[in-house]
Amino acid sequence: MDINNSMASSFNASMTINSNQSYVHCGLDSQRVSLAKLIAFIILMVAALAGNILVCLIVYKNTKMRNTLNYLLVNMAISDLVIPILASTTRIVELSTQNSEWRVEGDIGDFLCKFVFFVLDMSPIVSILSLVLITFDRFAAVVFPFMATKLSSRFRKYFIGLTWIIAMAFCSPHFYAVKLQNKFCVMDWDSIRARVFYTIMLMILFIIIPFVLLLVMYSMILYKMKTRPKDLNQTDKGRRRRQLSKRNITLLSFAVVLVYAFCWGPYFTILMVATFKWRWDLSHVPCYWNDIVFVIQYLAYSNAAINPLLYFIFLKNYRTGLKNIIPMIRCFNRYRVIKTARSLMVRNTSQRDNGNTVEIEARL
């Protein structure tokens, strides 16, 4: 995505630059660089799409996995599917054509411009809110083990729905600020003050507050796990199995938070610099900024592909579910091969019969 219309990231609209800023002197990437970027995004799209679909299928197929933690992981997987379906696809088209212009014009194009950025910017908000809920689920399980199951099973559907409602509410200004101008989809606020205010609210509500909550809850989880007395009523084997399961779940939730911070940290850093230092005046930005933006965008998008890998690494249920799904895929492929072979046999038999009929008629 050229710097003359967008500083690309998964919060695409939040990082969009007015298209009237021209950087013609920067030129386009070389053919080799463009091809490398294109291949990188294709790999990312396939990995994110396959991984998150598998996560949803595994939980859907296994009724024993339908608990609060897995529902929240599926919620994250659904929000992460936005990345390969919309974001990566858009970038692949832009990289393959070397053109960042919006390809649908008129009222429909303007609506799609608003709607696509609206959905894209919802994805990371839903993810960070889901991370808070996952950590709270772990916090309740460790600190309040007797109340955790009742509370989580009763309110989880409301909490999951609330993540999407909050994301939609915060991204609703996109339908006003995001506009189709000169064939480019840009965020054009009435004033720089409004844009700065929106960015500040973004940082406070979905970065500072969530990570403070995460820090407090993980601190209490670690303290509780260290000070909890051993359960002498259980056998050593049963206690070790239960502790190992809880340990893996806690490590998973912690790893998902760290990966999210690693993938999205550079984006939010650049967002702060663009807002408070440059005040969105990017006329002095050098040409190599395009490459920096590409790396930041790719790192942010890669979070959608890394999350499923973490589930398979830390949770045995997901590894077992994956093994159960792979034979289904093999059986489906085998069925397609058999069906294709049968259709070819029928076609060859039909052609042979037609040939014999023609030969008999010729003899007569």
TrEMBL record:
GO cellular component labels: membrane
GO molecular function, one term: G protein-coupled receptor activity
Record carries keyword GTP-binding: no
Top-level taxon of the source organism: Eukaryota
UniProtKB keywords: G-protein coupled receptor, Membrane, Receptor, Transducer, Transmembrane, Transmembrane helix
InterPro entries for the chain: GPCR_Rhodpsn, GPCR_Rhodpsn_7TM
Matching SUPFAM superfamilies: Family A G protein-coupled receptor-like (SSF81321)
CDD domains for this protein: 7tm_classA_rhodopsin-like
Domain G-protein coupled receptors family 1 profile residues, every copy: 51-311
Membrane-topology descriptor: Multi-pass membrane protein
Keyword Transmembrane: yes
Cellular localization per UniProt: Membrane
Membrane spanning stretches: 38-60, 72-93, 125-146, 158-176, 196-223, 249-272, 292-314
Gene3D superfamilies: Rhodopsin 7-helix transmembrane proteins
Family the entry assigns: Belongs to the G-protein coupled receptor 1 family.
Record protein name field: QRFP-like peptide receptor
UniProt lineage: Eukaryota, Metazoa, Cnidaria, Anthozoa, Hexacorallia
